[in-house]
Automatic annotation (TrEMBL):
Keywords: Cell membrane, Membrane, Symport, Transmembrane, Transmembrane helix, Transport. The chain crosses the membrane at residues 20-41, 61-80, 92-110, 116-136, 157-184, 196-213, 246-267, 282-301, 313-332, 338-362, 374-397, 403-425. It comes from Streptomyces rapamycinicus (strain ATCC 29253 / DSM 41530 / NRRL 5491 / AYB-994) (Streptomyces hygroscopicus (strain ATCC 29253)). This is Putative proline/betaine transporter. Its main location: membrane. The lineage of its organism: Bacteria, Bacillati, Actinomycetota, Actinomycetes, Kitasatosporales. May be a proton symporter involved in the uptake of osmolytes such as proline and glycine betaine. Residues 433-452 are annotated as: Disordered.
Length: 452
């Protein structure tokens, strides 16, 4: 009887784990599809909403708006991260996908500059800001939700779901853009076809919201509630110890975020504007690179579970710093095979860094300030380093006339961040996620409510 009960319990746990992984993966994929689709239509959006005397000027304006969304991300991380620590991981994830889906859908309805003049780019900027606000709470909340459920020995592997589905969301956006390019003539794609994937965000986001609302909150958060230890002001309770951990997350995100946006957003622009490829061929190669990256993410997670977070993330960062220039030289040849080799090398080291980032966001902080601390460090780095990355890369290639000049930026960031993490990052492999960490410096939200 006991053996039957044990087998039943194991089966329930496995079913629950599959459901949690599937819902987390689907929600994160849909969120990143919404956020990334803008990047694949940056050239078209630049022409329609940011008219200029030169195509390069329009493209630079469109990429600048891509970066503007990252400026707003710290505010989103602050508000939604605080919300996740106070109200729970599940409500924060539901709110994030709702905001992202709504703002993405509305972009499809914005008239062009030729119709409403300056109001058109203003509307695009405001909606991109709302996307950025939503994305500011997504990554840290999603990583925390998944890792707080993960088996201790497989947190790296589970974290790979967040990294891989982010890439798959961008991949889906890329395939959608590719389908529109193949299905419609250029004039129709520019006139109305580009709006279709933004409209697709509405049903996809409703699906993501439904899946997230069906989940329970994490055992770690429910334990905080039961013990009346939910923080009233998690940001204030981070303290000096928390600020040091935020700096470590900033360093890791600087190279992981920049590398990801090079791979997911800038490569297609580089291939079309610098190397001289057609849009369809550039999208196909970018899609291939993202598929390879997604397949490498679970391997990176297993490496981190085997040898530790610190060794893995430092090895990945150092690798990015060393191979960035050779990778761009390979991509710049214009040869499909050599370009794919360059993307594969880049994706391999980026996977090591990115997957470990998801685990470190969680393991570095105590549960009552976890999402706030991770979201602040993550989004500050994305605003300062990652978000402007495609714009800086394009400016380097255009301003210097050197095709591989964008590699200097990612190489410098990766090497500086790696040295910093080598010096200061503690090993967190096997950390107890229920430990409260530093002493609290104020009443919790739950105890204050009870006292009232």
């Amino acid at each position: 009887m006991n053996s039957l009960h044990t087998a039943s319990a194991v089966s329930v746990r496995r079913t629950s784990a599959r459901r949690i992984l599937a819902a987390s993966a689907a929600g994160n994929l849909l969120e990143w599809f919404d956020f990334a689709i803008y990047g694949f239509f940056a050239v078209t959006i630049g022409e329609l909403y940011f008219p200029s005397h030169s195509p390069t000027g329009s493209l630079m304006a469109a990429l600048a708006v891509f970066g503007v969304a990252f400026v707003v991300r710290p505010a989103g991380g602050f508000v939604l991260g605080r919300f996740a620590d106070r109200a729970g991981r599940k409500p924060a994830l539901a709110l994030s996908v709702l905001l992202m889906g709504g703002s993405t859908t509305l972009i499809a309805f914005v008239p062009t500059y030729g119709v409403i003049g300056v109001l058109a780019p203003i509307a695009i900027v405001l909606l991109r800001c709302l996307q950025g606000f939503s994305a500011g709470g997504e990554y840290a909340s999603a990583a925390t939700y998944l890792i707080e459920y993960a088996p201790r020995a497989r947190r790296g592997l589970w974290s790979s779901v967040i990294s891989a589905t982010a890439a798959l969301g961008v991949l889906l956006a890329g395939l959608t853009a590719l389908a529109i390019s193949a299905w419609l003539p250029d004039d129709q794609a520019s006139a109305w076809g580009w709006r279709l994937p933004f409209l697709l965000a509405a049903p996809l986001s409703i699906l993501g919201l439904y899946m997230r609302l069906k989940l329970e909150d994490t055992p770690v958060y429910r334990e905080l509630e039961q013990r009346q230890q939910v923080a009233k002001d998690p940001v204030r309770r981070l303290g000096r110890h928390g600020m040091a951990r935020i700096a470590l997350v900033f360093a890791c995100t600087a190279m992981a975020g920049l590398g990801f946006y090079y791979l997911a957003v800038y490569v297609v622009t580089h291939l079309t504007t610098v190397v001289g490829w057609g849009k369809t061929d550039a999208l196909l190669l970018t899609v291939a690179g993202l598929v390879l990256y997604s397949l490498l993410c679970p391997l990176a997670g297993m490496v981190g579970d085997r040898i530790g977070r610190r060794r893995t993330v430092v090895a990945g960062g150092m690798g990015l710093g060393v191979i960035a220039v050779p990778c761009f030289l390979l991509i710049g040849t214009g040869d499909v095979g050599l370009s794919l080799v360059g993307l594969t090398l880049f994706a391999a080291f980026e996977a090591l860094v990115n997957v470990m980032l998801g685990v470190l966001l969680v393991e570095l902080f105590p549960p009552h300030t976890r999402v706030s601390g991770g979201a602040i460090g993550f989004n500050l780095a994305q605003a300062v380093i990652g978000g402007p990355g495609p714009l800086i890369a394009a400016a380097l290639a255009t301003g210097t006339g050197i095709a591989f000049a964008p590699a200097f930026y990612i190489a410098g960031v990766a090497l500086i961040a790696s040295v910093t993490l080598l010096r200061y990052l503690p090993e967190t492999l096997g950390a107890d996620l229920s430990e409260r960490g530093e002493p609290a410096d104020g009443p919790t939200a739950t105890t204050q409510a009870a006292a009232g």
